[in-house]
Write a structure and sequence with these properties.
- The chain is mainly beta.
- 0% of the residues lie in helices and 30% in strands.
- The strands form 3 sheets. Strands 1-5-6 form a 3-stranded antiparallel β-sheet, with no helix packed on it. A two-stranded antiparallel sheet has the order 2-3.
Length: 98
Amino acid sequence: MPTPILLRALNPTNTVLYDGTKDITLTCAGLAGLEMLVKAGSMRNKDGFIPSPANPAYLSINQVHHDEIPMPIPDGASPPFAWTLQPGGAMFDPPIQI
């Protein structure tokens, strides 16, 4: 890799077990008001895995400070905060509601 990669520590209090059977709401300690609604049956991991009661997934959102964002913010954008959603590469249909 041409540049260092920062592996941000994830706060375990932001983690929710998701088995795909019911809607869940993700929140982030330190970011009051940030909520993400994940609909039941909407997640597929990057390898095609679909969470189930027999094989659930852990979902979390964590704050990323502006000096730790791994890519440039588009011109003109000035978000008040940034976050990471884990696991990386997961896809949601319908999309997560923020």
